């Protein structure tokens, strides 16, 4: 066995002999097993299958709801994710063999289509980046989406999309040439990773909050447009791969002209109600301390605060609900709204308090 691991081209007879006995096969060095897997792909699949199952089970234990933004699942850094022992095992199994790498990626595509389980999208990203960390350039340089994944990974690590990286991501999306449309399927799978979806939605709300603070409209913000374009592409990944129709899904312009302004209004109303309640509570406490009951109040609120709360209360518009029901992108943004509207209200209080 010690001699065999240094031989790069073992003949068919030797390979057949090695797989004829399970104990002998198990004792083979990883370099020998790679040669076996190249000739007997089903054996490679048999080695990968239990690892796939274990990986998915681990992810599902951590993530019970892919859109629950408060789960600690999302606090795991990209580097920690790709240092997972199963991801590292896959990287060791493939090594620098491009054929095994391509087979592995095809396994992940097939499993994603068959199960609709988005954790296979995470593994697609983590597997490549594990090889990237090991500087396996024989593989990484030949993967057409390596640079896109690398750039997005850096954004997620830093929790920001700066103008330079946004241009890089956009250039990659727009540089897909005729005959290379299948690359769009791999990009969409990368963007379907729940970590990517969470990051993109979070980044969108950071920009939306900035727009609200500055009284600006969303449709002219180029980075926001790119973020929502990527998010929309990721949310349609399964359809693209399953249908083999490699075309970017249309981003409805009404998302920018109708839905986002309504969403921004909801955030502002929440902020006003929160500020009014805080102001009323502060005033009530101050009045009590002076024992001055002459101030006109309504259930603990002064008249101005009560009016502000009433004027900015009520359910979202019916059109807002229709967007959520019909558009995947709107549904994801609405799901994240419950988390980020609280953060914006809190930041607004701090802003007012500091003035």
TrEMBL record:
Biological processes annotated in GO: negative regulation of transcription elongation by RNA polymerase II
Protein name: Negative elongation factor B
PANTHER family the record matches: NEGATIVE ELONGATION FACTOR B (PTHR13503:SF3), NEGATIVE ELONGATION FACTOR COMPLEX MEMBER B (PTHR13503)
Keyword Protein biosynthesis annotated: yes
Keywords: Elongation factor, Protein biosynthesis
Source organism of the structure: Aceria tosichella
Molecular functions per Gene Ontology: translation elongation factor activity
GO cellular component: NELF complex
Keyword Membrane on entry: no
Taxonomic lineage from the root: Eukaryota, Metazoa, Ecdysozoa, Arthropoda, Chelicerata
InterPro entries documented for this protein: COBRA1
Pfam families named in the record: COBRA1
